[in-house]
Amino acid sequence: MNPTRSKLHLPSMLQQSLSGPFENGAILQTSAPHTDAELLDAYSRAVVSAAEKVSPSVAKIEVTQTAGRARNGEPRERHGGGSGFVFTPDGLVLTNSHVVHDASRIQVSLPDGQQLPAHLIGDDPASDLAVIRIDAPSLPAVELGDSQKLRVGQLAIAIGNPYGFQYTVTAGVVSALGRSLRSYSGRMIDDVIQTDASLNPGNSGGPLVSSDGKVMGVNTATIMGAQGLCFAIGINTAKFVASRLLQQGRIRRAYIGVEAQTVPLHRRVVRFYDLARETGVMVIGVENGSPAQKSSLREGDVIIAFGAQPIAGVDDLHRLLTDTQVGAKNSITILRGTERLELAIVPQESKD
């Protein structure tokens, strides 16, 4: 065979073999150029769609707080900020309490370039939620979902302004549900969502979004030094708090006026009284004029029940002291030494 001749015919032979049928009937075809939509997999499309739906409603919040006075008598200011999101078209914005608490000035920046002053409607340090208002008509508002429908493992998208970078999107999954998180006021926040969607300073108050673009939580905290431990307050809790803040400007909670700590109970005492819990709340201080003093509670008493509910710790007592208990006569069960007593108590509204 003439090698030169074979070489000359190779391109035409190759073209014929590529365009013709194969023995198994398959035909090799060149693929058409992909569109941008085709290049996105299902995960990417879900994140992109949710981010595009919610991002126009995400606000950057900048606050100024008074931080005492300088030596010359001039007031000193401290600056901070976070995120929030518009949840009504007339300018109501939901964010974290720790972002706007004690702010002397609040400035809100929207994705369309608007920069507007805001005023505080109300904040609740115990749940770390706050509502502020900006004066702007027909704003794009998010759609609030139902955090009770969340499932571990489903997609979670966090949108906010970490370190001042506006409208940053991170994605992960719901890692756990029903967590408890202590707010900066000292109370426990229940039904907290744990996610591994990255949060950083400045994300606080931003929305946690499901794949269908509904807000399922309010991003609130991370665990410093830990990777993938980020938390959001469930949107069902936020709905309740926001409605109360809009009606009353605050959340009413009851208090009894004690300083207390959780302590273990002696096993013999637990068995003798057939107690439901092995720990209780020891009173280490009683406020003058408080419901506790009026009910004859003393230092050293150990609270083991409030009404019909057993008390295992300070957080249990906090959960039971809701607004419905304000002014309502109830019973409080204590151990005084080895004696079990039941006292009448009328909780008052907390001033905090």
In short:
The protein is α+β, with helices and mostly antiparallel strands and 352 residues long. The protein contains 8 helices and 21 strands. A 6-stranded antiparallel β-barrel has the order 1-2-3-6-5-4.
What is the N-to-C succession of helices and strands? HHHEEEHEEEEEEEEEEHEEHEHEEHEEE
The percent range for strand residues is 35-45%
Query: How big is the Rg?
Result: 30 Å
Total helices: the number is 8
Q: Give the averaged pLDDT, no decimals.
A: 86
Number of strands: 21
Fraction of residues in H or I helices: 10-25%
**Gross geometry:** globular
| Helix/strand/pairing category | alpha+beta
List segments where confidence is low: pLDDT < 50 over at least 5 consecutive residues: 1-11, 13-20, 22-30
- For the record, give the distance between the C-alpha atoms at the N and C termini, rounded to a whole number: 100 Å
| Main sheet specs | 6 strands, antiparallel, barrel
Give the neighbour order of strands across the main sheet.
1-2-3-6-5-4
Report on this model:
By secondary structure, the chain is α+β, with helices and mostly antiparallel strands. It has eight helices and 21 strands. The strands form four sheets. It has a six-stranded antiparallel β-barrel with strand order 1-2-3-6-5-4. Strand 11 and strand 12 (214-222) form a beta hairpin. The radius of gyration is 30 Å and the shape is globular. The chain starts with a helix and ends with a strand. 34% of the residues are buried. The model is unreliable at 1-11, 13-20 and 22-30 (pLDDT under 50).
